[in-house]
Amino acid sequence: xxxxxxxxxxxxxxxxxxxxxxxxxxxxxxxxxxxxxxxxxxxxxxxxxxxxxxxxxxxxxxxxxxxxxxxxxxxxxxxxxxxxxxxxxxxxxxxxxxxxxxxxxxxxxxxxxxxx
Length: 116
Prior knowledge:
It is built from 2 helices and no strands.
């Protein structure tokens, strides 16, 4: 095999490896997006249930003082829950980005080291 043919074979192998890595990256993205969406759906369901619970508690309050106490308590609970949910989504988004970038980074690193 001459020098030109060898370079062509090396380039072809590198392109195939990059294509495989991109495919793996896309699969990781699809799985991560699915996980992220499922987490959003779970959070939305929990938030809706909390809203209905709040409405029921306010509707059954025995007076304005109790209604105000329910309102205050629920507002505090919702703030804590939303803070936790934001933290969870941020951590999940970071994992998504890391897991989807890793196969591509590894492939490109291997391709660069293979050519040096």
